[in-house]
Amino acid sequence: MKAYHLNGHAGRDRLVRVDLGKPEPADGEVRIRVEAASLNYRDLLILDRAGQGGLDGRVPLSDGAGVIDAIGADVLQWQVGDRVAASFFRDWVSGPFKASYVASSLGGDKTDGMLAEYVVLPATALVAVPAHLSAVEAATLPCAGVTAWHGLIARGGMGQGDTLLVHGTGGVALFGLQFAAALGARAIVISSSDEKLARAKALGGSILINYRDTPDWDVALMKATDGAGASHILELGGPGTYDRSLRSVASGGKIIQIGVLTGFGPKPDLARLQWENADIIGVTVGSVAHFAAMNRFLTDHAIHPIVDRVYGFDEVPEAYAHLRSGSHFGKVVVKL
Ligand SMILES: NC(=O)c1ccc[n+]([C@@H]2O[C@H](COP(=O)([O-])OP(=O)(O)OC[C@H]3O[C@@H](n4cnc5c(N)ncnc54)[C@H](OP(=O)(O)O)[C@@H]3O)[C@@H](O)[C@H]2O)c1
């Protein structure tokens, strides 16, 4: 079968195409014929680390969807032919997060990911693909979709009458925007591009701010909301955005701490949190149970993920370059 490996050897491409034997499912496992895989900002960070060693031979990408084509013994919940997507943390099935789950993140330091024709996973690490979604659409869900769902809805309780702020128009942000629109919450989008803001408006964004033209976007946001601010904030930027997010939070609001788009380790002035009786909710993606709950919501609201561009298997380096350019709107996908 064909696959990609990360490569840490100097002077060679960081992504190399390889031919591998088809894996066989053991007891409790299934084999998936992967139809599509999607890229996340995390995959750029991992690619950048590949040159430092430790990731040699790792199959990249956490996100993929396909069809079950073989089943090991003792698997009762799936059949050959079922359409499935893999959950980001192979071992986080339900309940609270445990640090031990980190090693099981697909395409991460310790566990192979989805950029291969066939992947074997435990039967418990999968969810059914909603019937209204194509494989390309389903492949966008595991990281970006589940992160937005877990933070905003499972933990954040976002609903009608709330006001959401999202940073930019990448994968996590647009899932947040679509969830807000489906719930009847107001959405505020900040973006580097007026053209992207116009597209965000068509998805339900109602307050649109270009953060390049308006670097003090928190001031503009407060003016546009008559001083009320945002009840829910998808904090995707990190150090470069955190203080403005804090100055944008409504009384009793929630900052969902997720992103590192401007770097790691924000050192925000947290005083405002106390004066506004606001909360910070830290999120690392989510569990199989979060994924399944999100899929029910996607089905109920007939939500289709926003796919920016689909690349062929031979074009994986181009797909990474496109994501790195930041010119995308929504998700970048590879079709196998
Ligand atoms: N904690 C977790 O479990 C978790 C899970 C998923 C993602 N993440 C993190 O969340 C972030 C978003 O991930 P993603 O995969 O959705 O990324 P993505 O699709 O690559 O989104 C990138 C977009 O973010 C916007 N952006 C960049 N810098 C910005 C800034 N300074 N202010 C506002 N917007 C900015 C840009 O949109 P415009 O062009 O519209 O400006 C850019 O196109 C990343 O840092 C990622 O590592 C964390």
From TrEMBL:
Residues of the Enoyl reductase (ER) domain: 11-334
Superkingdom field: Bacteria
Signal peptide: none
Any one Gene Ontology molecular-function term assigned to this protein's record: oxidoreductase activity
Any matching Pfam family: ADH_N
Alphabetized InterPro entries for the sequence: ADH-like_C (IPR013149), ADH-like_N (IPR013154), ER (IPR020843), GroES-like_sf (IPR011032), NAD(P)-bd_dom_sf (IPR036291), Zinc_ADH-like (IPR052711)
Name recorded for this polypeptide: NAD(P)-dependent alcohol dehydrogenase
The species this protein was found in: Bradyrhizobium rifense
Origin organism lineage: Bacteria, Pseudomonadati, Pseudomonadota, Alphaproteobacteria, Hyphomicrobiales
